[in-house]
Amino acid sequence: MSAALQVTAFGLALLSTLFLLLATCTDCWMVNADDSLEVSHRCRGLWRECVTNMQDGVRTCDQYDSILADHPVKIVVTRTLMITANLLAGLALATLVLGLDCITFLKEDPCVKLKMCYGAGVILGAGSILGFIGSVWYAVDVYVERAMLVSHNIFLGVHYDFGWSCWLGMAGSTGCFVASVLLTCCLY
């Protein structure tokens, strides 16, 4: 039972960490489009902004000036939280691999291997919380930005939606949290 639970948690943690990594690297955190004309589709990400022409499918991306330049708070905070979540999830995966029962590393001391799995669960939980906070922070800021435009009567048919990268970050964080619960609460 313990080995099957460990392998299940490892698979879920691996998939969720890949989701977090993809969410951090991709550039579609916020989508805005013109409802009236449906001419272009704009995705804003943590690293660049891309515009896709809906008629011919041509995509043009603009990199942000520099990582050290002044950026909006939502981008800086989300970058920081997502990168930290990725690093913690990677560390947890490395620790979990060494703590799995099916790996022969420290095979003669199962107590240490169990502690490694427990530690990996705690680290994975911390990473999942940071990733979830980063994803939700960005999503709430997108909602507030849209609400400010509407309240100032600047809303001219442009709508803001959460992009697939934002949803991917939330899904990856949730999966890491579930794997963390499996490793910390259910393993014993």
Automatic annotation (TrEMBL):
- Which residues are the signal sequence here? 1-28
Q: Name one GO molecular function term.
A: structural molecule activity
Q: Does the keyword Membrane apply?
A: yes
Residue spans crossing the bilayer = 118-140, 162-187
Instruction: Read off the PROSITE patterns from this record.
Output: CLAUDIN
Taxonomy, superkingdom: Eukaryota
Q: Which UniProt keywords apply?
A: Cell junction, Cell membrane, Membrane, Signal, Tight junction, Transmembrane, Transmembrane helix
List the subcellular locations.
Cell junction, Tight junction; Cell membrane
Q: What is its main location?
A: other
Q: Indicate how the chain sits in the lipid bilayer.
A: Multi-pass membrane protein
Q: Name one Pfam family in it.
A: PMP22_Claudin
InterPro entries for the chain:
Claudin (IPR006187), Claudin16 (IPR003927), Claudin_CS (IPR017974), PMP22/EMP/MP20/Claudin (IPR004031)
One GO CC term on file = plasma membrane
What protein family is recorded? Answer: Belongs to the claudin family.
**Free-text function comment from the UniProt entry:** Claudins function as major constituents of the tight junction complexes that regulate the permeability of epithelia.
Q: What is this protein called?
A: Claudin
Species whose genome carries this gene:
Oreocharis arfaki
